[in-house]
Amino acid sequence: MAPEIYPESTADYLDPDQLRALQLQRLRAIVERCFTRVAVFRQRMQQRGMVPADVRSLDDVAQLPFMRKTDLRDHYPYGLFAVPMKEVVRLHASSGTTGKPIVVGYTRYDIDLWSSLMLRCFVATGIQTGDVLQNAFGYGLFTGGLGAHYGAERLGATVIPISGGNTRRQIMVMKDFGVTAICCTPSYFVHLIEQVHENGLRFAELGLKIGIFGAEPWTEGMRTHIQRESGIRAYDIYGLSEILGPGVAVECSQQAGLHMFEDQFLMEIVDPQTDQVLPDGQVGELVITTLTKQAFPMIRYRTHDLTAVIPERCACGRTLRRIRRIQSRSDDMLIIRGVNVFPSQIEAALLSVMTSSPHYQIVLSRQGGLDQISVELEVTEGMFGDRISQLEVLQTRLAHAIEQTIGLRVPVRLVEPHTIARSEGKAVRVIDQRDKK
Ligand code: DLL
User: Fold this and answer.
1) DSSP per-residue codes, 355-418
2) Both ends of the chain: CA-CA distance in Å?
3) Alpha-carbon dihedral sign for residues 381, 176, 190, 228
4) Domain at 342-432: CATH architecture
5) How confident is the model at residue 58 (pLDDT cuts 50, 70, 90)?
6) What topology is assigned to 1-331 in CATH?
7) What is the pTM of this model?
8) In the chain, where the domains are located
9) Separation of 34 CA from ligand 1 center, angstroms?
10) What is the pLDDT of residue 333?
11) Best mutation site among 187, 283, 326, 347 for ligand 1, i.e. most ligand atoms within 8 A of its Cβ?
């Protein structure tokens, strides 16, 4: 069957000059809109002696002030909205690590835009009318569930709004409802794989073909594990509440970086320390400007997500530039005995030794005023029966792999199967016990 053509997806293939012209026109309009409607933005522009007409080229975006998560907190809940509340038809919120959540709003136009972007995501991964999508992203204030739901409906796929959790029911639905595609966090899918196997089922008997995973960092190693164990194709989807929710960038059939929907989002990569814009190919913090969103426009939003622009054209034919898979956030970095450590580096090291994707946790503690780091890793049922000496060999190999990767000796403790809590949404990888007595 030939793939269906969706009018929304034509924006994926714009001629690059045409795309730049569209971006500039939209950038100028959104700056004007924020200047007139968002007091904080106007004040910051005025402090710089700038007016919207100063934006004459796309490069001029670098002159505009940044927006940060602290701005969202300071103007909680609605202080940065650019429309009156009577135009806001939906609110979502994202819980931060401290205090109040951040609240984001959508007009009817924004919901429509979001649905069309999610449709483009599904199309990019090969989902089409006739597919049955098990939507295991959480429904509620989290953007994942409803974001994917509206996109799938707009596409014309059959969506099962199962939300996250209740793994037994997920497996029953996957088996009985003819599910062909699923979306959830990658860590939850790893858990589902384990449970499918423990229930004596085989993926080959299920109709599942495509998985769309996001909302948390995952690695190429985890993709290999997922694809090998389940036989599906696994795609990465990226987004954040402050900008939209899911649907900011997505992988295509090439599985080689995520296409950014540049007709809607202007991206820059900046050095998180100096704030300077970095050239394509260099890793830095992703900064996003929304180009048409109405209720909650963001100018130069500092995402904290670290990535790089892949300048080469993708073999799939889309002209939208790609970003590399996001493996870490600038505020994720742990500093242990003076060494910078990202949790994703530890995961990559563990995966270089393990044959399957492990359940693990990084535990931070403090002894004698010094920060200590250790890793707890669950052994599988099969390995649990191994001789002690075999487990010791594994432990040493894991510690060695971590040392090779981050240059630090980190004790690895092997724990019994099912002792590390499973998450139904975003996995908790770092347990910080430093402030506990
Ligand atoms: O996680 C939106 C989303 C839902 C994205 C479903 C994809 C799928 P927040 O809860 O606001 O929104 O969290 C956003 O999660 O800044 C990243 O640090 C991280 N994140 C999201 N997607 C990915 C991904 C949703 N594919 C924060 N890879 C972002 C790595 C991701 N990190």
Assistant:
1) SSPPPEEEEEEEETTEEEEEEEEEPPHHHHTS-HHHHHHHHHHHHHHHHHHHSS---EEEE-TT
2) 63
3) positive
4) 2-Layer Sandwich (3.30)
5) very high
6) Rossmann fold (3.40.50)
7) 0.93
8) 1-331, 342-432
9) 25
10) 85
11) 326
